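Researcher: I'd like a structural prediction for the single chain below. Treat it as a standalone chain; there are no partners to consider.
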Amino acid sequence: MSRTLSYEVIVVGGGHAGLEASLAAARMGCETLLVTMNTDTIGVLSCNPAFGGPAKGGLLCEIDALGGYASQGADQSAIQCRILGESKGPAARATRNLVDRARYSHLAKDFARRQENLSILQGEAEEVKALNGKISGLKLRDGRVFACGALVLTGGTFWNGRVYHGLESTPGGRVGEPPALYLKSSLESLGHRLGRLSTSTAPRIMASTVDVSGLLEQPGDPGARPFSVLSGGPRNLVSCHLTWTNPQTHEIVRENLSGSIIFAEKDRVSAGPRYCPSLEDKIVAYPDRERHQVFLEPDGPDLFYPSGLPTGLPPAAQQRAINTIKGLERAVIARPGYAIEYDVSDPRDLEPSLESKLVKGLFLAGQINGTSGYEEAGAQGIWAGVSAALRASGREPFFLGRDQALIGVMLDDLTVFGVSEPYRMFSSRAEWRLCLREDNADLRLSPLAEKIGLLDKTRSELLKAKELAIAKGKELLAGVKITPEKAWAMRRDDSPEKDFILQEPVYASDFLRRPGVGIKHLEASIPQLAEISTDASRTLETEVKFEGYLEHQRREIERLRRQESSRIPDGVDFKSVPGLTREAVDALSRAKPDTIGQAGRLRGVTPASLSALAVYVKKWRLTRL
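Model: Treating it as a single chain, here is the predicted structure.
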């Protein structure tokens, strides 16, 4: 009789979610096994060759603050770094890195292989093993069974994935790679609800056939901040170029809509991403728009990735459409774009820790929860890995609040509202986005990471140095007065004149709150400010400038925390709650929120209904004292 091998945590899938989950569990001291269908494709970038952007950059910084990998990899493999949303203020400011996808994957595999407590196995998962409502192990297709204390399932677009070039389809999780076929029935037998979603990717174009000479060049930003506190300055090795579709492009797309599975008359694919639409979606949704942006991004030494052109059109139609675009008149498609449809699990069957509500010790993360994007997957993966490690070591998983992290916002959105289309993270989804910035991710989350054993010594030392630098900076700003003469002397040619006119001396902290004044202006009068690191200085400036707004948000957060701590009794019949509207009853019955705070975020639950529910919960508690 063969012995069953045992691990504390097993992770299935070597994509961005699986990689972060396995690394996190291993860093927390758990003996961890990563099972993937192909060890050569660990950390592969399936779609665009870039990380970051609005909110996504914030997720990467939070991954780094928790000790994760993706942020380091995105910095180390960067070939261009940009700042987006600079003029919209610190809540919207975002970093985006164009990367060398081959280098990123190589670095990811090497990092995983060197991680202590982590073993990597090539194989296909077949069955989730559970006993009495608790996870017990995992069975592979080759018959081997591994016992575990916690199991994390990822898998991206591989679960029953089907790739479409026009109307022609083949089974696949990516082009040229087989799908994962066996976990669907296993999950359904455990009570999890599954559905189907789709997405599409753009064609790759031979770089030697593209003429960028007449296109708008977009170089990198020398002042872009890295995603990881362990990284140096930005790496800007290439430029991108901007071009546009035109009416001729759109006409070709319209003529071929029936040949795209996205708009086929029958058997069309399931819902695709609203916020990363296919070219077909754009043409149909905006029939009067004469052009759409296309960013030509270098994708390795020989290819361009035309960001903005994901498509499921037949390859011949893609080629015709591409050749109508300025700069691409003679472009040759090296690999056609394609659509892909895949299984997803309903995230409402999960706790905000990403643990199954049906099977203790089972966790799901990444695109199988209905999300899109590397960053969303990695962020779920790291939190699922943390939660799994806690469960495996006998500790209860805990939740990240919406006020603590963008990750917390995403997990709450997924597990409370579910998805009807691929979910994408936006800063606008975060009520407290001024508190959840890229620059303070380490201050928010690294103390927690340190507490639970996620943070390495270097990050811990950098955190303490940053905290001390910010405290020192605030002390300096509060203790020095700026005279009218000094204020005017600080003005530069590009600075608004009115911001540097004073009638009387003011403290430097008050002077800094003026829109056109920055820390750099004050360094001549307070030389010690120049000794503060760029990262700490950026956070210092934001916290001083927006002190009033931040304090207001903190008061609101504290008020809502009290609602989040007010739990709704299990099994409550919302129809029996006096004062609820029918719409509120329907919304509450579908979502089954755990707390008053969650209930208040449901569409259809008015303030009056929420108040009625809060009164009911309070009375219910009193009757059981």
